[in-house]
Specification:
Layout (H helix, E strand, L loop, with lengths): L2 H7 L2 H10 L4 E5 L3 E2 L39 H4 L2 H9 L2 E4 L6 E6 L2 H10 L4 E4 L4 E6 L5 E5 L2 E4 L5 E2 L9 E2 L2 H4 L8 H5 L19 H16 L5 H16 L7 H13 L4 H14 L3
Parallel strand pairs: 6-10
Antiparallel strand pairs: 1-2, 1-3, 3-9, 4-6, 4-8, 5-6, 7-8
Helix pairs in contact: 8-9, 8-10, 9-11
Amino acid sequence: MTQPTLIRRVPVLHTALHLAAAGTPVLPLREGKVPFGNCRACADNACGGRPNMKHAGPCQCPAPCHAWAAATTDPSVVTSRHWFAAWERAACVGYHPGGADLTVVDLDNPAAVGWARRTLPATRSVPTTRGEHWIYQGAMRSVNRVRPGVDLKSTMAYARWLGPGTGTITALPDVVRALAVRKPSPVRSALPSFTMPAPGGDGQCPHRTPAYLERGIAMAEQRITDAREAVHATVYRTFLAVLSRHGRCGCLTDTHITRLFTAAQAKGESGRHCSEAWANARAALGM
């Protein structure tokens, strides 16, 4: 079937192909702005992970089953037999903003739009059913609910295509990037109860001076703070490194652990994710 014939049968394909040709990765969305479900080839995580997992990469299976990770600019994929079956049932076109080096500030109500107009630099805007999408040039980490009625959609996320919008697109400003950095709660950071207990140690202590441990914790904090991507994976690897070096001799205290958790929270990690990463690192080391 030729491309013009496909477009006549499924008009939404015209929009998808136009976006793909402009370098915007696209995917079909069904009713409710939801991606199509996993294909049989990807059942039980066979192809490497769902897109909400931090290590997931581009989907290699033939069907558009992995949301943002399945988005593509390849017209041969967009019009392939597997994708065409999804386009026939699609309600709209979705796209991966981060894949096009874009960030969408999703303003979900009039109050959020009013806040953006008072606070953010002007850029291209697109009306939505309840608010607006403000689109900036530049990719960043996606975070939901950075403030009431405001989500950030960029890497590892998808958005509904609602048209080209109006206004000149501008560079992603620091004020938007800062929204993704959640300040750690003083209460949560001060209380060691939200952390995993420091492991007791009966092994020989290799630390001849307190400065050695202090330097190790400070370097771990800095490693987390310097992470620009894959923050969750960086936090886990850092916890693993700290525990492998300092976790068996009993030198780690709740204060040290709280410092690490606080650094992770400042990069957007939740207390729950920190506790899970710490527990997983301990399990990996047999503690």
